[in-house]
Specification:
The structure holds two protein chains of two kinds. Chain A is of the alpha/beta class. Chain A has four domains: 6-31 and 39-287, Homocysteine-binding-like domain (TIM Barrel, Alpha-Beta Barrel); 302-546, TIM Barrel (Alpha-Beta Barrel); 592-666, Orthogonal Bundle (Methyltransferase, Methionine Synthase (B12-binding Domains), Chain A, domain 1), CATH 1.10.1240; 676-797, Cobalamin-binding domain (Rossmann fold), CATH 3.40.50. In chain A, the strands form five sheets. An eight-stranded parallel beta sheet of chain A has the order 1-10-7-6-5-4-3-2. In chain A, strands 13-14-15-16-17-18-19-20 form an eight-stranded parallel beta barrel, surrounded by seven helices. In chain B, the strands form two sheets. In chain B, strands 2-1-3-7-4 form a five-stranded antiparallel beta sheet. In chain B, strands 5-6 form a two-stranded antiparallel ribbon. By secondary structure, chain B is α+β, with helices and mostly antiparallel strands. In chain B, helix 1 crosses helix 5 (103-134). Chain B has one domain: NADH Oxidase (3-Layer(aba) Sandwich). Classes of the chains: A alpha/beta, B alpha+beta. Chains A and B meet through helix 13, helix 25 and helix 26 of A and helix 2, strand 1, helix 4, helix 5 and helix 6 of B.
Chain lengths: 798, 218
């Protein structure tokens, strides 16, 4: 049998078959490893068992032997007497000594803890954990890196970054999928192939969980999505547990037969996972000895992804929501300066629900650290939704920070034809596998004619291709000038779209709203311009999806352009509209107090506006809202109504309050503010519904809340309190195990910000415990928090 | 799995009362909606129980059961079933999403999901129980870390013994918070004679009468 060296491997991969070995864990369990035992310990306690397994796989015909280091990360080895360095050093040495000259793969499995936002492990922390494994693996002489059995796409990204930034070894990356066709954290094979396929791996694919038959559709889906060689290591069928012992349901012969199907679906890197043995590798090799790799035609389509969704651009228009952008929005800017991301989250939700398929995220204002704000904004959005993101910044450092933290494949907005921009931005797009949005402008500004814009587009496309960015990842924005100032050039934009699409076949994006700047009834102009652009071939308009006219244009365009089959969506949307109409035309004659008590958020805004015609904002707060809240509170204490109702009333007051604040700021008066308070769920705790309830109620009573979120380190809380000169901090913890973090936070606040007071709450706290950790106040529920705050600010004022 | 609306009301603090009309309607909607976002997965495995110098452990690496309450729960058992169950991460994200626009609905969805994971565990427990009967044993009720004085610190060891991160996507944080959130681990003892049908959970639990979720609350 011919042995591969690393150069041969690199040439061969994807063109000829490459064989990995089979299961290690199964073999170790057979050799007596107990449940919950660390297989890595066997490298020291039973080296002969390990080398024997390697030798058998080598003789069975595996080209690459996998080290016994699946769980050799610092988290899983925490209780072991061996360090990461010990285990990997030893395991690589064992593999090299027994593999008979075959290549050795450093095996890296998942960390075993979940990354944010599902869990609490930070992306950069995950990166550091993997980095430690990679560094020692390289030193020990591993030939390739195998990252396998990963469920979380973001964790896979962290591992790949760690591998390629700390080694030059070829990377093989496989994730594990369940019988619903998704990983345990919801990633589908197509999305995985699109995201990982752009990260410079030697092969990507699937292993574990299922047998070769079940993996067939997954392999097929991946090979349709990417040119990168596809790897597959199936289990020996599905597990059966009899008498506490796990076995697998297919034989080596069946396994081999079914591997042939996987080869026909495009797999070229082959091996086995749980339940497979050297016999499986022998039979598999034999079965496909006279087959040839099958090249599957990939769909060259322009896609952007979140971790669980792929959005295809081309065909039906794809809406990119433009509202997360503070330019010209006073309130948004104020929120960013305050460090509040609530507004961004609200805008994200509104746009998603209005049909935006991609969200543009721009937080560029001078007064803040844009990089930090961008990362925070992206995390907040990824925390709650799976809409892919378009990162919008002019600063390469901001873009790079965002590219690292994004779980998926984003669009970079933007690069231009300027030399400086091309040099700074294109390498980032290549490195992080992102789509790039090219603006047709250069050192001389925006060219007047369509032909000149075509030229700039051509330059951007050429340069991107030179960098190795595939054509389908390049999008062009032909830019529109305002009709009020440069009316003649508006049509040049439309022409340029068609020219560029015809000549280069790339997808086009266009920010619409600029066209109407300086003219009245902007929505009318925007709508018509959008229709023109779509007819010219525009694929993805950047718009305000909440604008009714934009929605109408899209709806009608889809009918007329034959994209909305049988006009089904169009007809459906009319039914919806009628329903909404009848609802909004209802007459509500209740008093504000009744509306609050009944928790009718839907009608409180109109009621508030109506009352503002005859009443002062302060009067509405003091004479109507607060008494209504107090009434609800009393009934809650008497157990006449319950938490869901209390919260509903509180949210109703909140809506009314927002109208009042807007009204007040229009009058040029200062916002209603009875005092500034920080709220946070402490480090290590991820429960925040309770904290959010407290927040809403405090806001109801006129306090201004800086919400730092959940899992907040003590240092951050202290820094924010000092920076914003805030004297009252509310902390929440739900677990006995996180009370320590609460205590630590209070201690740090006391020493660094002595004039600051703290109140604490959460399921595990009691007045005694609060006292013990030196909190200043204890609140048994949200109502108690309100009286703490009221008393605190009364005292500080007098 | 069947979600019991009465349990949802209990988690929301209504005790045995019917909630107001709006909450009742929202519970119904959430019960339907939750099903789309839950992906229940479970794993369970039997272990021998080993007693040594007053300590109690399962026949797996580093799996000691500390605390009087679990020891008393398993006092008649030499064999146990350890189970882990989760609804998956999507329902967590759904609750986070709703909480940004409608906190009271988020709370209701949270209560529905909590009821669902418990109902899922009831199903596992009942099937484990019948299996045990076939093998000539009687199963105890399930007992989870955090009940009585059974410490949460056992969580990572249970998860490791069942290989849950890999098998069902369940792990725990450094502070022993299980991720995904709607997850349960528990121990079921197998013994030679019937165990008490109900455990006096609420009477022995630390918050006692002040707990809003008390089962005996009227």
């Amino acid at each position: 049998m011919i042995r591969l060296n690393i150069n041969k491997l690199k040439r061969k991969i994807g063109k000829e078959f490459v064989f990995f070995d089979g299961a290690m864990g199964t073999m170790l369990q057979k050799a007596g490893l107990p449940a919950g035992g660390l297989p890595e310990d066997y490298n020291f306690t039973h080296p002969e068992i390990i080398t024997n397994i390697h030798r058998q796989y080598s003789e069975a015909g595996a080209d690459i032997i996998t080290t016994n280091t699946f769980g050799a990360n610092e988290i899983k080895l925490e209780d072991s007497i061996y360090s990461v360095e010990d285990v990997i050093g030893q395991a690589v040495a064992l593999a090299k000594s027994s593999s008979n000259g075959k290549l050795v793969a450093l095996d890296i499995g998942p960390i075993g803890q979940l990354l944010e936002p599902i869990g609490d492990l930070g992306f950069e922390r995950a990166y550091e954990i993997f980095k430690r494994q990679v560094v020692v693996g390289v030193e020990a002489g591993a030939d390739v890196i195998l990252i396998e059995t990963v469920s979380d796409l973001h964790e896979m990204k962290a591992a790949i970054f760690a591998a390629r930034e700390n080694s030059s070894l070829p990377i093989f990356a496989t994730m594990t999928f369940q019988n619903d066709g998704r990983t345990l954290t919801g990633t589908d094979p197509e999305t995985m192939a699109h995201v990982i396929g752009r990260l410079g791996v030697a092969a990507l694919g699937v292993n574990c969980s299922l047998g070769p038959s079940e993996l067939l559709p997954i392999v097929a889906s991946m090979s349709r999505a990417t040119d990168v060689p596809i790897m597959v290591q199936p289990n020996a069928g599905l597990p059966k547990i009899t008498g506490g012992i796990t076995s697998y349901d297919i034989s080596a012969d069946d396994f081999a037969k079914k591997t042939a199907d996987l080869v026909n679906a495009g797999a070229t890197v082959l091996g086995g996972c749980c339940g497979s043995t050297p016999e499986f590798i022998i039979k598999m090799r034999k079965m496909i000895s006279n087959m040839h790799p099958v090249s599957v035609e990939t769909m060259k389509s322009t896609v952007v992804c979140s971790s669980t969704k792929t959005v295809h651009i081309g065909g039906d228009p794809v809406l990119i929501g433009e509202r997360i952008n503070p330019t010209g929005k006073k309130f948004f800017k104020e929120e960013l300066k305050r460090g509040s991301f609530d507004h961004i989250v609200t805008e994200a939700i509104l746009q998603k629900e209005a049909g935006a398929s991609i969200l543009d995220v721009n937080v560029g204002i001078r007064e803040i650290d844009e990089k930090l704000a961008m990362v925070k904004a992206i995390k907040e959005i990824q925390d709650i939704m799976d809409t892919p993101i378009q990162i919008d910044s002019t600063k390469p450092a901001v873009l790079e920070a965002a590219l690292r933290i994004i779980n998926g494949k984003p669009i970079i907005n933007s690069v231009s034809g300027e030399e400086k921009s091309l040099c700074a931005i294109l390498p980032l797009a290549k490195k992080y596998g992102a789509c790039i949005l090219g603006l047709t402008l250069d050192e001389n500004g925006i060219p007047k004619t369509a032909e000149e814009r075509l030229k700039v587009a051509g330059k951007i496309i050429r340069r991107a291709l030179d960098q190795g960015i595939p054509k389908e990842d390049i999008l062009i924005d032909c830019l529109v000038l305002t009709a009020s100032a440069q009316q003649k050039e508006v049509v040049e934009t439309i022409k340029a779209i068609t020219l560029i699409k015809n000549k280069y076949g790339v997808k086009t994006v266009l920010g619409i709203s600029n066209v109407s700047f300086g003219l009245p009834e902007r929505n009318l102009l925007n709508g018509t311009f959008l229709a023109m652009a779509l007819s010219a071939g525009l694929d993805a308009p950047i718009v305000d999806p909440l604008c009714e006219n934009i929605q109408n244009v899209i709806k009608t365009y889809r009918v007329l352009a034959g994209k909305d089959e049988n006009s089904a969506d169009y007809l459906g949307s009319f039914n919806d509209t009628h329903r909404t109409d009848s609802r909004s035309s209802e007459k509500y004659k209740k008093t504000l107090k009744e509306i609050v008590v009944d928790g009718q958020k839907g009608i409180v805004k109109n009621k508030t506006l109506e009352m503002l015609k005859t009443m002062d904002a302060m009067e509405i707060v003091n004479e109507h809202l607060i008494p209504a809240l107090d009434l609800v509170g009393e009934q809650y204490e008497k157990r006449k109504l319950f938490l869901p109702q209390l919260i509903r009333s509180a949210e109703t007051v909140k809506s009314s309050f927002e109208i009042l604040q807007e009204h007040i700021s229009k009058d040029g008066k200062p916002r209603l503010n009875k005092g500034n308070i920080i709220l946070a769920t402490v480090n290590g705790d991820v429960h925040d519904i309770g904290k959010n309830i407290v927040k809403t109620l405090l806001q109801n009573y006129g306090f201004e809340i800086l919400d730092l979120g959940k899992n907040v380190p003590p240092q951050t809380i202290v820094d924010e309190a000092l920076k914003n000169d805030i004297k009252l901090v509310g902390l929440s913890a739900l677990m006995t195990t996180t009370v320590d973090a609460m205590s630590e936070t209070i201690e740090l606040l006391h020493s660094r910000h002595p004039s600051c007071r703290t109140f604490v709450g959460g399921a595990v706290l009691s007045p005694e415990l609060a006292n013990q950790i030196r909190a200043d106040y204890y609140g048994k529920d949200a109502r108690a928090a309100v009286s703490i705050a009221q008393n605190f600010f009364k005292e500080t004022l007098t | 799995m069947k979600i019991d609306k009465q349990e949802v009301r209990r988690y929301l603090g209504y005790g045995k009362r019917i909630a107001d009309a709006k909450t009742e309607k929202t519970i119904d909607i959430c019960m339907l909606e939750a099903k789309r976002h839950m992906h229940p997965r479970e794993i369970h495995k039997t272990f021998n129980l080993l007693r040594d110098d007053g300590s109690l452990r399962a026949d797996a690496e580093n799996l000691e059961f500390k605390g009087d309450s679990i020891r008393s729960h398993l006092s008649e058992s030499n064999l146990c079933m350890i189970m882990a169950a989760t609804l998956g991460p999507e329902i967590d994200q759904t609750i986070r999403y709703i909480s940004k626009t409608n906190l009271s609905e988020a709370m209701i969805m949270d209560a529905v999901a909590t009821t669902a994971i418990e109902a899922f565990c009831d199903e596992i427990e009942s099937s484990v129980s019948s299996e045990a009967r076939r093998d000539g044993f009687y199963a105890t009720r399930r007992f989870s870390p955090g009940y009585g004085d059974f410490p949460l610190s056992v969580q990572p060891h249970i998860l490791r013994a069942l290989d849950t991160p890999r098998k069902i996507g369940l792990s725990s944080t450094e502070n022993f918070i299980m991720i995904p959130r709607k997850s349960v681990t528990a121990i079921i003892g197998f013994q030679a004679f019937p165990a008490p049908l109900t455990q006096p959970y609420c009477k022995t639990c630390t918050p006692g009468l002040s707990c809003p979720y008390r089962k005996d609350d009227d």
